[in-house]
Amino acid sequence: MQTWVVQKAAGYLSDELKTDVRIGSIDIKFFKSIALTDVFIADQRKDTLLFAPELTVSLSRISISKHQLFIQEANINNARIGIVHYKNPREYNLDFIIRYFSPSDSDTTPSKHPWAVKIENVKLLNNTLTYRDEKYPITKHRRIDWDDVKLTKLNLHITDLVPVADTIDFTIEKLSCVEKSGFVLNAFSGDLHVIPGSMTVNKMKILSPYSDVAANAKFDYDHFSDFEDFIEKVRWKGDFTESKLSFTDLQYFAEELFHIDRTIVFSGSARGTVDRFKVKDLSLRYSDDLYFKGNASMTGLPNFDETYMELDVADLCLKKEQIETLPAYPFDSIQLVKLPDNLSSLGEVHFKGKFNGFYNDFVAYGNTTTELGFLSSDINLKIDPVDRKTSYSGKLTLFDFDMGKLWNLNPDLGKV
Q1: What is the DSSP string of 320-384?
Q2: What is the pLDDT of residues 159-189, one digit of tens each?
Q3: CA angle in degrees (0–180, nearest 5) for 64-70-76
Q4: Reduced to 3 states, what is the DSSP secondary structure of residue 169?
Q5: Distances (CA, A) of 31 to 34, 59, 74, 119
Q6: Phi first, then psi: what are they for 249, rounded to 5°?
Q7: Residue 78 β-bridge partners
Q8: What are phi and psi of 371, to 5 degrees?
Q9: Which of 221, 251, 320, 326 could pair with 226 in a Cys bridge, judged by C-beta atoms 3.0 to 4.6 Å apart?
């Protein structure tokens, strides 16, 4: 009987959706559970949209009279999910399913007795998800290619999923996966609140083999399609508690960083879009002798060469020996920054003031303390884009500064 039912249901959906829908078997325990095997759904171009060897749903309560549906657990194991964004027409391969199950645009009458739905647990185990945007050609990258994504070992545990009208609340207990680029996500967790035009993630935690990031975040957008142009169109806010971020992970998002094997500890409150944002109470610590505290704003990312920066520096700590562990820009080799040997005599340097400009053409004005004395500066620094030579112009005032020791001159020179 159940075999007959599943064949009829699959045939009906195939006719309605105008695609191939198949179900291997079904096991129904009325008002308790449903178990499906070998569920296959093709998109309308006959490519695999979903193949799930195991799909089970356990019910905790269902009441037709009270319009209540409470699901104790839904499981999808070892599934393959293929999402495609077509070039023409510009739509997704699953849009036809969404349209079929969405209410008609002409039906604007709200239901007098809406269903109360709650799913206590959703579990995905060892699934594979691919995403391809056909608008862009396939290119080889060491970083993640957001137009050609493949996630394997995809595991997900969601609890307390409650949809009410156009609002969805749920908790991601754990999301883990491996992207084909090599990036590993050990665990993502957080409490999500989704409404039209906004998504909030509280108690967000991101763990990888090298990084540990904690924050409360919010993403605002006009249309969900804005995520296709995340850099310019999605407005975000992030309040980060002390977190650890490794360049070993960042390299999968920016290829230019592949030769950097370092970790920074940071905190702060950020607002804006990726290409135009501000950070308040920013703390960046590379080591005990190399750190930044203050406020920052940047315009122009991800193109670092054309990014304009404004830094309000409360305390910038520098030391020659630590700076020389940094890779030299443009980070395309293992070459490290090299400074003149005599700068070691400055010891630990602390700067308070402002930086305005580009990385290769900026003005720095403020006060600097060193082990050799005190400096006040209003200087423009420029780096020639061709020969990489550095030039300075501006005003530099020294107070009780030991020039003789800095330049290894006659000790009788004394302090200036």
Answers
A1: HHHHTTSBPTT-SSSPBP---GGGGGG-SEEEEEEEEEETTEEEEEEEEEETTEEEEEEEEEEE-
A2: 999 998 889 999 999 999 999 999 999 999 9
A3: 120
A4: strand
A5: 9, 6, 14, 15
A6: -85, -40
A7: none
A8: -75, -10
A9: 221
- Mean pLDDT across the chain: 89
| Cα radius of gyration rounded to whole Å, the chain | 29
Q: Is the pLDDT of residue 125 over 90?
A: yes
- Is residue 197 within 8 A of residue 220, CB to CB? The reply is yes
Sign of CA dihedral 178, 181, 184, 187: negative
Q: In the prediction, which pLDDT does 107 show?
A: 57
Q: Is 249 helix (H, G, I), strand (E, B) or coil?
A: helix
In this structure, are residues 240 and 280 in contact, taking their beta carbons and an 8 Å threshold?
no
Cβ contact 415:401 at 8 Å:
yes
The residue whose two tokens read 């443009």 is: 330
Residue with tokens 């879009």: 273
Residue 165 has, within 13 A of its CA and on its CB side, a CA count of: 7
**Token pair listed for 265:** 């500890």
Is the Cα torsion angle 7, 10, 11, 12 positive or negative in sign? Answer: positive
Q: Kind and range of the H or E element at 126? A: strand 116-133
Digit-coded pLDDT (tens) for 235-282: 999 999 999 999 899 888 877 777 778 899 999 999 999 999 999 999
Nearest in space to 44 (alpha carbons), one of 103, 104, 12, 86: 86
**Which of 176, 66, 62, 78 is closest to 119 using CA atoms?**
62
- Cα separation of 359 and 362, whole Å? 7
Residue 301 backbone dihedrals phi, psi, to 5 degrees:
-60, 150
pTM across the whole model:
0.86
